[in-house]
Amino acid sequence: MLPTCTRCRSRRIKVPITLPLSQSSPNSRLTHIFQCDSLLPACANCSKHDVECTFRDEALQVDVTRCYLKTLQDKIEKLNSELAIKSQISSSGLIETTPDGIPTKPSSISSFVLMPGSGKDLYIDLSLPSRIVEVTLEVLSQRQETDDKMTVDEQSFSFPDIPRLDRSTLTPGAVRGLLKDYCRLVHPKYDILDVGILSYDGMHLRKLPETRRFQILMACAISATQKSYREPIWRPFANTCREWANDFIAPIISSADADSMKAILLLLVYEMADPTRGIIWELLDVARRTCLQLGWNRTASSSNETSINGEAVSHDPMRTRLMRVLRDIEGSLRTISNRPTLSIEDTIYNATEEDIPSSTYRKLFRATYGTGRTNDTGSCPFVGPMSVLIDGADRIADTAPASQEIWLVLLVTCVRHKQCVTCYQEPDDQQGKGMRTLRLKIVKAAAELLSSTHRVAFNDEGFVSPITACSRALISGCSIATAIVKRWKTFQSHFRDLILCSEILTLFCSHWKGGHSYLHAWQIITDLLHTNMKQRN
Hints:
This is Zn(2)-C6 fungal-type domain-containing protein. Keywords: DNA-binding, Metal-binding, Nucleus, Transcription, Transcription regulation, Zinc. One of its GO terms (molecular function) is DNA-binding transcription factor activity, RNA polymerase II-specific. Its main location: nucleus. By secondary structure, the chain is mostly helical. The chain has 3 domains: 1-91, Zn(2)-C6 fungal-type DNA-binding domain (CD2-Gal4, Irregular); 170-332, no CATH class; 365-536. 52% of the residues lie in helices and 4% in strands. It has 22 helices and 4 strands. Strand 1 (15-20) and strand 2 form a beta hairpin. Helix 19 (435-459) packs across helix 21.
């Protein structure tokens, strides 16, 4: 957190901060210190007066803004992250060398590592989209011709300026309409708010209690952001609601109770809908720390357990509901993040049928790219622990997108493993257990994942984040492109799926900087696929 800005110091603004009483005491107390909150680009006090926080640089004898300090810190963390990536790639042998042993330029796969925002632990390893893009380029057999093309010109991408609206433009009718859309599209997926909040008539919004007003404003901001994907006129409404809600964030979150958890989850959903701020990873960390502080990471079987605040831990339907939302949010971000997560499925409740796909995905990913490294060793996936995990994936009857993502993890294994006696299948064997069946399952899962993502994005059948939609579209599209080139499937049977992938990436590329890079990679892959098909004919 940055030090106190000049304006707050001169006005002696006090911010409530919860500090521990002692090193040995689990209890905490509420104190007031002279310190700004962590909102950017200005603290809540300066933001009300539409000014930036400034700090006195004693070395340069000049006043600098909070944004300037934040930019410097982000650059430092980005450089540290890049050094960690190069160190990991070097130790894993992924750097290409000449016959004389001289290393060549770094592989372009690092261009597709999604870096989170500020934070100490930025290195998240190569994400699933970057790994699948890498293997797709290998299959297209023109990797050496694409290294220069894979570099994305980030300077050419910028988010448009959002006009500022007066808060009076949020009429009761607009609030009612946005809450209605939130209840229809977002609430079924992320059950955070009570039904009574969503049935608010929009009258006398300024007179409501701060917590209730914050929840209504955040719901309106999320709904307006989702509408802005195809109707940009709603973006100023979303921005106005979000900035208004900023006034109430600090006291609500510092209370460390169920309402603070709701507030954090609402902020998370909004950052998923509008990831331009790049603070979703920090919010996830805040949510996990709040869970630990409330004792929600413990099972409800031991009624005599207490949380850090000294409160008894007992079964609470609200806690169950909110923790389910947090697990769903983490699950929707798993394809682009390799960071260790708070294993909520293992530490809070016994695994249910809804938790099995998430657990299976984590185990398969770890076996393929983590400790098992089956993608590097070239071992057969139908022998040993991998075979058990594949059998477990077969038993999942759910057709939800999270279940389809499981099969796409195995694409690299199918490409790099040379068929052996264990996994070989005869051409006419359609139902047996082997590599041929596994390939068909991957292609089927990719097509269904594209179809479901496209339907939600274009037909208003639910909520999908630009981050989630772009990552699912890219990994599915690359899987189908790989299948076409490897002759697992024909081009004609999946031409429509390639179009769906392009439409999804085109829709969301202007709402997320990573989506812009994903679209650039997909355009290169489709060009290479077109060239490959022309050479084949």
